[in-house]
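Hi U.,

Before I forget, here's the chain from the pilot set. I'm dumping it here mostly so it's searchable later in email.
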Amino acid sequence: MSKGAFSGGCQCGAVRFRLDASPRDFMHCRCCICRRGHGALFATAGVYDKAAVTIEQGGDDLSRYESSPRNHRLFCSYCGGQVFLTIGTWADRMSVVLGSLDPGQHPGHDPACERHIFWDEKVCWHDVGDTLPKQEGYGST
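Structure:
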């Protein structure tokens, strides 16, 4: 696992953040909400303890959207870039959309915590081709 600070932000740069730890979970979400929200086959997020996530700029520029009960996507009010996700049952955690990290940044993670979630909602025409665990829903974290 890699230690140290990692940085990222939204597409226009109004929102900037720093991560001061490696993620506790590393998830490739296949749910239809993530697919639609990102315009991609899946979205990859790292789950961090909230204390490890610092919004350095643009906290007031974040908008919230309740995409499912008690789950909120936080995105830049200017460019629409999704940066964070909060899950209602994980009050002490923050999910960070890892595609929002700055170029060349890799948050490091324990390979044992990487998995596909909401596998039952994946598109049928894409062959993932890996051996990572595949779970329905969030699985256990």
